[in-house]
Amino acid sequence: MTFEAVRAAYPDGLREIVGGGPFDWPAGHATDDTDLTRAVLLAYLEPGDDLVRTAGEHMLDWFDGNWPGRTPGSRPFDIGGATTTGLTRFRETRDWRRAGSGAGSAGNGSLMRCIPTALARPTADPALRAGEATAISAITHDDPRCVHACVAYTEIVVALLAGESPREAAGAGLLAMQALRGIDPEDGAAAVELAIGQGLDIDLEQAVDQGDAGLAHGGTGYVLDSLALAVAALVDPRPAVDSLVDVTRLGGDTDTNGAIAGGLLGARDGVSAWPASWLSQLQFAPEFRAAASTFATSGG
Ligand SMILES: [Mg+2]
């Protein structure tokens, strides 16, 4: 929905999970963001001998309808174009280096599902985390902006888990990008650095008042728009719920922008940030809670 359509339907923002929308979604049911986050999460819980390949296999399970709540063989109808292309290539090659939708396709479809790497590897060597975040992104999204956005996001989450302040954590993302500057012709790392900087400058409350956050593509699916919005939510001083509701009030790719911002807010404030009425409705909440406990106990 556009900003105007969201404002007309919910003048004060939508603060309960009600379902419906353009796809008539059941309340609390996962969309592709959460489904594919789960695909990556399952790989970290049982990596086998090749973590990245296992993550890709779970993504194919989702693609093929081998997934909780879905009719076997049915295609997800909220699948993105790059995800379709990337997974089709991955099905043929089973190799992330020979998958992906190619450079120039810079959607937010890998950023929305990259948080498990940070949760599972909070104390690992940053180079190992970066390698995993890169490869898991590249299964579908191998454009340098997508890959580097995932690396930066992972470092931001790790910094938050270590107790750093929101601005310090954003700084960890910037530092990670400075180390990667210039390694690809388009300099995806420099572009991600700019997006984090843009996010630090966005006042989310004011953006909602004006119906404009000044994003390059209006928050309609471009990876760096979604990253900037998530950083804006992270450094917003208000309670997490207010920030997250405002991210979705801006319209555009609301489920994905919300998922990406929600990941940072959850890492910042913990599960107690979210209303019980939300948590009780979420399709995979019990499974995700158990996974979080597993990672917290193992300490990465
Ligand atoms: Mg979406």
Low-confidence stretches: none
Query: Based on DSSP secondary structure assignment, what is the total number of beta strands?
Result: 0
How many helices does DSSP assign?
A: 15
Cα distance, first to last residue?
39 Å
The top-level CATH class is: Mainly Alpha
Average pLDDT score = 95
Query: Would you identify the CATH H-level superfamily?
Result: ADP-ribosylation/Crystallin J1
Total number of domains: 1
Largest sheet: none
Q: Enumerate the distinct ligands.
A: magnesium ion
Dominant shape: globular
- Radius of gyration over all CA atoms, rounded: 18 Å
Query: Any guess at the CATH architecture?
Result: Orthogonal Bundle
Beta percentage is: under 5%
Secondary-structure-based class equals: mainly alpha
CATH topology: ADP-ribosylglycohydrolase fold
Order of helices and strands: HHHHHHHHHHHHHHH
Give an account of the 3D structure:
59% of the residues lie in helices and 0% in strands. The chain is built from 15 helices and no strands. The termini are far apart. The protein is an all-alpha fold and 300 residues long. It has one domain (3-298): ADP-ribosylation/Crystallin J1 (ADP-ribosylglycohydrolase fold, Orthogonal Bundle). It has helices at 3-9, 32-45, 51-63, 81-93, 115-120, 126-138, 144-161, 166-180, 188-201, 204-210, 223-235, 240-249, 254-269, 276-279, 285-298. Helix 2 packs antiparallel against helix 3, helix 7 packs antiparallel against helix 8 and helix 11 runs antiparallel to helix 12. The chain binds magnesium ion. Residues 253, 255-256 line the site of magnesium ion.
